[in-house]
Amino acid sequence: MAVEVLEPFLKGDTGRNTRGLLRLIILCTIAAAAVASRLFSVILDPWFNFRATKYLVQNGFYSFWDWFDDREASHPVAQLVYEPRKPAEEPKRTRTWHPLGRVTGGTLYPGLMVTSGIIYHVLRFLSMPVDIRNICVLLAPGFSGLTAFASYLITSEMTTSPSAGLLAAIFMGITPGYISRSVAGSYDNEAIAIFLLVFTFFLWIKSVKNGSAMWGALTALFYGYMVSAWGGYVFITNLLPLHTFVLICMGRYSPRLYVSYSTWFALGTLASMQVPFVGFLPIRSSDHMSALGVFGLLQLVAFVEFIRQQVPNKQFQTLLRGLIFVVFVVSMGVLVLLTVSGVIAPWSGRFYSLWDTGYAKIHIPIIASVSEHQPTAWPAFFFDLNLMIWLFPAGVYMCFQQLKDEHVFVVIYAVLASYFAGVMVRLMLTLTPVVCIAAALAISSILDTYLVAENPIPKETQANGQATSDSIKSAADVIKDSLRSTRNPVLGIYSYVSKASVVGAVTTYLLLFVLHCTWVTSNAYSSPSVVLASKLPDGSQHIIDDYREAYYWLRQNTPDKAKIMSWWDYGYQIGGMADRPTLVDNNTWNNTHIATVGKAMSSREEVSYPILRQHDVDYVLVVFGGLLGYSGDDINKFLWMVRISEGIWPDEINERNYFTARGEYRVDDEATPTMRNSLMYKMSYYNYNALFPAGQAQDRVRGSKLPAEGPQLSTLEEAFTSENWIIRIYKVKDLDNVGRDHGSAVAFDKGNKKKKTAKRRGARVLRVE
Amino acid sequence: MRWFVSLLLITLLGLVQGLSSTGSRLLVVIEESSEKAQYSTFWDDLEGKSNNCRGYKLTFESPKNDKLSLFQHGERAFDHILLLPPKSKGTSFYTITGDVDLPSSGLGPALTPKLLLQFINQNGNILLTLSSDSPTPTSISSLLLELDIHLPPDRDSLVVDHFNYDTASASEKHDVLLLPQGSRIRSDVRNYFGGDGTIAFPRAVAQELGNSSPLLAPILRAKSTAYSYNPKDEAEVVEDPFAVGEQISLVSSMQARNSARFTVFGSAEALENKWFDRKVKSVDGRDSKTANREFAKQITAWTFMEVGVLKVGRVEHHLSSITGDAPGNDSVAQLGYLNPTIYRVKNDVTFNIEISEYSYDQLTPLKVDASDALQLEFTMLSPYHRLDLVSISQTPNSTVFSRTFKLPDQHGIFSFRVNHKRPFLTNVDVKREVTVRHFAHDEWPRSWEISAGWVWIAGVWITIAGWVAFVGIWLWSEPAYEQSKGKKMQ
């Protein structure tokens, strides 16, 4: 009996079931590992998304849709019911984009919040009351488990090897390139978007393979979800048409392709237009034109195919030529006409900056100023992907060997994503899935070859080879005699030594990979940005908590409605932790508004003060790392403020004026007058001299000695400086009560006597009433 | 409980019987208490011993007094200050800023310019009197410099006018100026200093007001024939007088941004008893009695906040519907409750503000001159609307101004702002922040209400109908298999 049960173990029907069960268990374990590796430290960020989710959960979807600002007290649409009722007690004021306000529902991708909201309601329905905050914190790790599963699915479509999918899943689960955006508490759009990206690609491949309208519709559905979740959906919008286009060019047009692409395009475009933030972009912006163009091309190709079946060959040639000409002329004419008349928007700046890395720096500094839009440094690839980065080309090569429709997709994806990842650090995220897939293909083929215990039997393989070669058509049949190694059919490895050494090496690499991932995740990607940690000389950890100290100070010591001006990087944190309105935050699309803040920071006090008054600014917050050597401070970001405001006011702000004659960016004695008179410089170094013996003031970030005499401020007064001087908050003075300018008021307070205008020179200025 | 409240009210009423709207504690800084008697009528008028009850509580202090302090526990110890000029030179011992080089002629440690400025910043009012007989303390002159009021550089300068002087008392020196009461400085400015009398200004110190500060306004200006000179240095000929003609301000005012008032009175002597009720004779020989007493009352009343004080009552705004085309606000009906925090773009909104004016002893309805207007701004960064407010109703104590308008087509954080700043009137700066939101998704007209959309709607339905029809025909039309194969291609 036992023999009978054991014999088909892992072979027959039971074997398939057992393997399926094993695979499921492995996948679940992988998902668990993916979640677990993201729990090193938890800090919820960005706050805005969390607040938006809270609003959604509290007020319902429609109210979220029409949400104007983030007053939590009242429901904006409820006011339409004109019932005389007592107004709620003083509601909280708008916290973002003062005073322009934010049409929040129309300026964000709601997918993330809606996902959390649905999970929240489902759990409540199941009588599991979970705080929405916990859902938000664990959403990204949870979805990373799903991403691992999705990469298993997509890899399994590529190869018959069962191990490749599992390897891809575990790679995807723990690679730092993905963990960087999905640690617990990282509640950003990317948290769910990567899962959607991979899953949409899986559905697409499935639908191309099957030529099924159902899979195409599912692709469109998840594409719509992706559009609602992340601006990076444009990547899909362009990658799928490119895949189709390449297939057509390769002469691989098929009704399967026609059905899947047409279904996806029609339904997907409609779905994407339902997101208010996207609206009519899919038919108006150039970024989406390729999808439309390929759709049109596909119709033509299908039409031509149809005609070819009807018409004799010779006439068909003439017809085809004429048709191509007419279509080309007409479509070009229409495109030019629409672009000139402005119906189709020109390419967006982000798009240009993808092709020309210097473009953004010159034309749209606001995009270039974001650190994650910088070109990637080479070590970052190895840091984020480790061994996969050198397995990646091998995997792509293996795709070339087989080169079915789905492999073409992987190849295109690989080429595009590696280019984009080189252009922007941020797009490393889109490269990661394809790297995982390719690396899994490579590793699995190595393991499949070397991890076979039995020796191959050449005769049998030869004999059975004919029968099985239909299904697994090796490259040797397709690419004849290209490489010597492919001339003969692959048989296998005989030597146990080589088997053991190769398998051992691969195992070591994989273990090292796990070690590397754990190390990177715990050291680089799990340190919250608001709390800085440093090591003291004796090795103990020292926490620098200036940010929270300052935000708490704001919360406790300023009036509820006090408006805080800071550079936009700190907008969300001030809104969330200090609970005060800000002028600009991390999501401000209004370039002019940001430039206004930049102008106020980079101009003289006399210029800045009216701007501050006009915007009702009560406090100005700057980040200064000079004392501690904290390099992410505002003086280091200052040039971006200058550049961004120069873009709007080229007459008033000039970047050149902030550099010395020799083109150096300095803060010491040689700093230019423009630099030293700028509000940012003054706020950063105000009273800094007092910390040091006379003439010894030192900036530890820029490593330079500061001028002996510190800057003077007259329109602002220092309100708060945190323990390590990282955050400095200044209060904007009111107009002088007796009508003096601030300079003379300060001089009077210091006891400098005003000189009597003893003898007037020139004509008298008479007072006219 | 009610009797207790009323008792409390009565007690409070007894306490607050002064006329000033801000308080009745008046500090008079006078160096020699013997001089007090010269101003006795003035004191009586202020204290209200005669029939009109002004009820100031006067405290006489010498600047030399060490215990004198304008503040107690960080709060003002007095509501108003009246500074009389010190009699003799160099009596004081402290300089203001510790500059030892300067000839010391301060007013003592309690009255440094910094403290006086702080007194103004804390809503205290100051009436400063000058005299050509005594030097102006450096403390005062540096304070005036801060306020952009300039005094002659020489200590003994005074104003003369060879065409408008009192022939009875100054037939030689021409230094007692006779000026008519009641000239207003600008046609659109309220005149609180009017009257028919003649004011005598003996030995006045000229002031010149700077041009830049909008807070300064002259109350009494010299005639165009007057000039300022120093009788000691320039007895024979005046080459470059400090100020001439109407540029000379004899009484000038500065109303700070917090509405604290500061008045410079050019001639302390004019407040003495002897000039309050004296016969003077003008150049053209007319005899008249001086109106100094009344003028002094007007000046002190204005400086000490008895007149020209605006008080804002209720400020309301609400959503309204315009029901007809009746004039004014008759056709406006209120929707919803008062003072909501959020409106939508293009809402009709009504703004009401109630303003009273304090006039000696009561609140009266504010009347805005025809040449002037009370304006409402609806502003975000810059005003989107600037509208004249219309008076719609009056109570015995106040006027209600109102305006209904359509909100601009721009969302954001707006504020209703009434920023009324006029010389001699206290500042009104009322700001009410409201949010103006965009249209909600269900506030747009439905698609079928837009006639231009009918084409597209028709297109949609025709497509749907055509597709359904096609499916129906496809499903129900059985292909004729017996026919030739070519039909299959349809």
TrEMBL record, chain A:
It comes from the Eukaryota. It is a multi-pass membrane protein. Residues 749-769 are annotated as: Disordered. Residues 752-769 have a biased composition (Basic residues). Residues 564-613 form the STT3/PglB/AglB core domain. GO terms for biological process: post-translational protein modification; protein N-linked glycosylation via asparagine. It is found in: Endoplasmic reticulum membrane. The chain crosses the membrane at residues 21-44, 107-123, 135-154, 160-179, 191-207, 257-283, 289-307, 319-345, 380-400, 407-425. Its main location: endoplasmic reticulum. GO terms for molecular function: dolichyl-diphosphooligosaccharide-protein glycotransferase activity; metal ion binding. This is Dolichyl-diphosphooligosaccharide--protein glycosyltransferase subunit STT3.
UniProtKB/TrEMBL annotation, chain B:
One of its GO terms (biological process) is protein N-linked glycosylation via asparagine. Keywords: Endoplasmic reticulum, Membrane, Signal, Transferase, Transmembrane, Transmembrane helix. Pfam families: OST48_MD (PF23358), OST48_N (PF03345). GO terms for molecular function: transferase activity. It is a single-pass type I membrane protein. InterPro entries: DDOST_48_kDa_subunit, OST48_MD, OST48_N. The keyword Signal applies. GO terms for cellular component: oligosaccharyltransferase complex. Residues 1-18 form the signal peptide. The chain crosses the membrane at residues 454-477. Residues 25-303 form the OST48 N-terminal domain. Residues 339-477 form the OST48 middle domain. It is found in: Endoplasmic reticulum membrane; Membrane. Pathway: Protein modification; protein glycosylation. Belongs to the DDOST 48 kDa subunit family. Component of the oligosaccharyltransferase (OST) complex. This is Dolichyl-diphosphooligosaccharide--protein glycosyltransferase subunit WBP1.
